[in-house]
Amino acid sequence: MTMAGHYDNPALKCQSFAHFDASRVPSPCFVVDEVAIENNLKILRRVQDESGARVLAALKAFSMWHLAPLISRYLSGTCSSGLHEASLAREFYDGEIHVFSAAYTEKDLNELAGFADHLVLNSFSQWQRFRPTLLAAKAQRPHFSIGLRINPRHSEGEVALYDPCAPCSRLGIPLSQFDATQLDGIEGLHFHTLCEQDLAPLARTVAAVEAQFGDVLGKMKWVNFGGGHHITQPGYDVDGLIELIKQFSARHDVQVYLEPGEAVAIRSGVLVTEVLDTTWNDMPLAILDTSATCHMPDTLEMPYRPEIWHAGDAEQLAHTYRLGGMTCLAGDVISDYSFDAPLAPGQRLMFDDMAHYTMVKTSTFNGIPLPAIAVWNSETDALTVVREFGYDDFKMRLS
Ligand SMILES: Cc1ncc(COP(=O)(O)O)c(C=O)c1O
User: Fold this and answer.
1) d(CA 195, CA 198)
2) Do 282 and 236 belong together in one domain?
3) Are residues 237 and 282 in the same domain?
4) For the chain: N or C, fewer Cβ within 10 A?
5) Same domain flag for 257 and 288
6) Looking at the domain assignment, is residue 2 inside a domain?
């Protein structure tokens, strides 16, 4: 069945799905258009070729390793949030493996020091603690490069949850805590401050970084501008970005890196869901086989409202429903939507633009290991660790 109706909602991003037949896949199902991914990659590749920056795919946003060969054809490598994502990079992706974590466990750091190309630390205390291990790794593999994440405390974002420069942020070293006497062995600086932003916020951020850390930049081999650049969104000033990178690299004689995540996968994938039941309590309700809390946590955390193909805002079309999941959580509600015709059990719907962040949050975000599970007997003190989760558990929840 091809769904008929509203193709003209300007907010819909995955235009290639206008004629996709949602009954061709199981439900629920993420469906990713590899052509749309490749179109994004072509734009990112152009930035790379024309600016001299190396562009990495941020696996935290989109780590569908089935498409790793395609991504590796266009970009210089990947950036990871920890050992599991970096292991995915090593197993499936080509190119450089970069990793940043807000803090590393000793065990993970020892492993990462054996294969990462760039490792970025979030504090001088972690640098001091792991310096011997990291310098020993560099002695073995001279191209291994160690960096520090800085926090220019220059906010461009509107949502505090997504703003690494918000007051009291734990992400990056602010100038007041930056000890320029401890840089022996540090080759690069990393900042990530943006979220879905255009060139002007980046330009202002770069100016803030230069004003605060200008004297250090010249001593570095590389500077990583992080992610949050909406490069593949129509209207992004790609030429301006290329110029900004060229000028920055020349000014400080550094290799620039970009690590966009969303820009790799934006406009490329939908989440197909099925209506299981319709009920009524003060208003028409529909229960879906997708859940806000299990599959789309951003709809509760941010919160944000995903668009649905062939649906409108509440009351815009004839039949308005509140859509929710099949879990027991009272708040497992996605939002209110309206449709041309009443919804019916078995009917398929498509949430728009769900390939980035939603898909990874359905598995284990950032590849952060799941807690082990143990049984303890408080009388006998007998303890059994019944289950531990590792890299394979993370990997097998994606594809
Ligand atoms: C350190 C770092 N790099 C890159 C990214 C990717 O950002 P985006 O997907 O917005 O481009 C993030 C996102 O949170 C990040 O924290």
Assistant:
1) 9
2) no
3) no
4) N
5) no
6) no
Q: How far is the CA of 312 from the centre of ligand 1 (A)?
A: 30
Ligand 1, atom 13: closest residue by C-alpha: 227
Shortest-distance atom of ligand 1 to CA 100: 1
**Do 312 and 196 share a structural domain?**
no
Environment class of residue 203 by beta-carbon count within 10 Å: exposed (0-12), middle (13-18) or buried (19+)?
middle
Domain hosting 342: range is 15-33+266-395
Give the atom of ligand 1 at the shortest distance from the alpha carbon of 226. 3
Q: For residues 92 and 223, state if they share a domain.
A: yes
CB-hemisphere CA count at 13 Å for 194? Answer: 26
Residues 77 and 187 in one domain: yes
For the stretch 346-388, pLDDT in tens is: 999 999 999 998 989 887 889 888 889 999 999 999 999 999 9
* Residue to substitute in 56, 60, 223, 353 for testing ligand 1 pocket (most ligand atoms within 8 angstroms of CB): 60
CATH code at position 323: 2.40.37.10
Banded pLDDT at 257 (limits 50, 70, 90) = very high
Which protein residues are within 6 Å of ligand 1, measured from CB? 58, 60-61, 79, 100, 192, 195, 226-228, 259-263
Please report which residue ranges of the chain form alpha helices under DSSP H: 34-51, 68-74, 83-92, 106-112, 124-140, 199-217, 238-252, 262-265, 292-295, 298-301, 358-362, 391-395
E-strand ranges in 251-387 read 255-258, 269-280, 284-288, 319-324, 333-339, 348-351, 373-376, 383-387
Do residues 129 and 166 touch, judged by C-beta distance below 8 A? no
Residues 238 and 272 in one domain: no
Question: Does 5 map to a domain?
Answer: no
CA of 224 to the centre of ligand 1 (A): 11
Choice between 7 and 162, residue whose per-residue pLDDT is larger: 162
The verdict on whether omega for the bond into residue 28 sits within 30 degrees of 0, i.e. cis, is yes
Q: Are residues 23 and 145 in the same domain?
A: no
